[in-house]
Specification:
Number of helices of chain A: 10
Largest sheet of chain A: none
Strand content of chain A: under 5%
Radius of gyration of chain A: 21 Å
Largest interface: A-B, 68 and 67 residues
Number of strands of chain A: 0
Distance between the termini of chain B: 71 Å
Number of strands of chain B: 0
Shape of chain A: flat
Oligomer: heterodimer
Helix content of chain A: 55-70%
Strand content of chain B: under 5%
Order of helices and strands of chain A: HHHHHHHHHH
Radius of gyration of chain B: 23 Å
Chain lengths: 242, 219
């Protein structure tokens, strides 16, 4: 979540103070990886698509770097396809709720490209998904900041291909406020209840899954906790809306 | 758990079911069914769900028809070229500015004062979008004018060019690791003209002129 103060204009591939060196976790991961990432002299083993599909983002990126270093064009392309395709629909769906239709696909491409290329330029981006989400939020904020400074560029003839309402929170502040409301509702919960809400509401998994994961949680308790959270979220959203 | 399901919950569950089945439901259509606080609640819940959603499983058929494919092509070009993220950034800036490549080149050549050598400017600009032109050779004047045309700044263009490091010296341009595989649309192909390469763009010594200096001489 980005507090208001962090909504500075983010330049393309800007350097952040916390970037430049790999973190300990990624170094460990690379050392344990069967393929040496920075040494094209060691053997690179291409992996089939279904194996790549199962890799976490960070390992997939490491594999992509290895393939590139080894000059294995096909392997690199396959990894890139799996990574880009895997995130494309998610990013597009989120942007559709926040931006006018005619800028969604270009912005989605820009967001994913930034996330991938920054991980190639030596930046330590931490967890890829979190980094991608950060870039996405900044892109939304940048769009509304730019729009407030320039004349509207919306198509004059509307967007017949994608009918639908304009975004509900048609400004950066509104978007960030909604996210902060969710965070505030979560912050009111104790840790196990919060995890329950994460599983059932935000990860869309079953209450049975949650009960299996969280100690001493019963389906009845899970139902009550989720229900109270939803009521509270609604209250906060209504308060926030004035 | 016998309470009737609210509209918000019904729509949330329907969206997630469709999304997890591999289709691409448009959340705006779901939001359009609600008003006021209901709509805001649904939007918050869907955004929170997507924020945490795991990467989708690769589907070759869906990928072939997806705009994600063009992005992969551009990223390949960036990773294999010597111009950083220009192959990703330049076409998208141009599209966002709603300017065709032919128009952009015409205006760029005119503003550079070389309108009579538009074809040469086109060749160099094409090499920039393809990632085959060394960014340090492109002058600030070219980047300033280009930035003006596509609504950005010279600094951002320089940053994009430095976003990726080539695999090894001399292994980028003519020896590109990746090749563009997407079929460009008609407008792009028409605008593209004959294939350009650094070799084609760089003039023979006797033909060397101001345009070469602008795109190769730096400064």
């Amino acid at each position: 979540m980005l507090p208001h103060g962090q909504l500075e204009n983010v330049h393309y591939f800007s350097q952040r103070p916390d970037v430049g060196k790999p973190d300990a976790a990624s170094l460990d991961q690379r050392q344990n990886h069967p393929i040496a990432c920075d040494s094209p002299t060691l053997a690179f083993r291409p992996r089939p698509e279904h194996e790549l599909d199962r890799l976490p983002d960070e390992e997939l990126l490491a594999y992509l770097r290895d393939a590139r270093a080894a000059g294995d064009t096909d392997a690199a392309r396959t990894a890139l396809q799996v990574l880009v395709f895997g995130h494309w629909s998610i990013v597009v769906a989120r942007l559709r709720m926040k931006l006018p239709a005619h800028v969604v696909e270009d912005t989605a491409g820009d967001v994913i490209a930034r996330a991938i290329t920054s991980s190639f330029s030596g930046e330590s981006v931490g967890e890829f998904k979190a980094w991608l989400n950060t870039i996405l939020r900044r892109a939304i904020a940048d769009f509304y900041r730019e729009r407030s400074r320039t004349i509207a560029t919306d198509p004059l003839d509307g967007d017949d291909e994608h009918p639908g309402p304009e975004p509900t929170t048609a400004n950066a502040a509104g978007y960030v406020e909604t996210q902060m409301v969710i965070q505030a509702a979560l912050d009111e919960l104790r840790q196990d209840h919060r995890r329950l809400v994460e599983i059932v509401v935000f990860e869309a998994r079953s209450a049975a899954d949650a009960c299996a994961e969280i100690e001493d949680m019963t389906p009845d308790n899970a139902y009550q906790i989720v229900r109270r959270f939803r009521v509270r979220l609604r209250e906060l959203l209504e308060d926030d809306n004035g | 758990m016998g309470e009737p399901m609210s509209d918000v919950e019904r729509l949330r569950e329907r969206f997630i079911a469709e999304f997890e089945a591999g289709s691409e439901p448009d959340p705006r259509a779901y939001l359009a069914e609600l008003d006021g606080a209901d709509r805001r609640e649904l939007e918050a819940l869907l955004d929170a769900y997507l924020d945490r959603a795991p990467r989708r499983t690769f589907d070759a058929t869906a990928f072939a028809a997806s705009p994600a494919r063009a992005l992969v092509d551009d990223l390949e070009q960036s990773l294999g070229g010597q111009a950083g993220a220009w192959p990703v950034v330049l076409p998208r800036l141009r599209q966002a500015a709603r300017i065709k490549r032919t128009d952009l080149v015409r205006q760029l050549a005119a503003r550079l004062g070389v309108a009579d050598r538009e074809a040469k400017v086109a060749s160099y600009y094409h090499a920039m979008e393809q990632g085959t032109l060394e960014p340090s050779g492109v002058s600030d004047r070219v980047l300033d004018l280009l930035a003006e045309l596509v609504g950005t700044t010279r600094e951002r263009l320089r940053e994009a060019a430095e976003a990726l490091t080539p695999r090894s010296p001399g292994q980028a341009a003519g020896d590109a690791l990746f090749a563009r595989t997407a079929i460009p649309d008609l407008e792009s192909r028409t605008a593209m003209g004959p294939p350009a390469s650094p070799a084609a763009a760089e003039a023979a010594p006797e033909d060397h002129d101001e345009v070469d200096d602008l795109f190769l001489g730096g400064g």
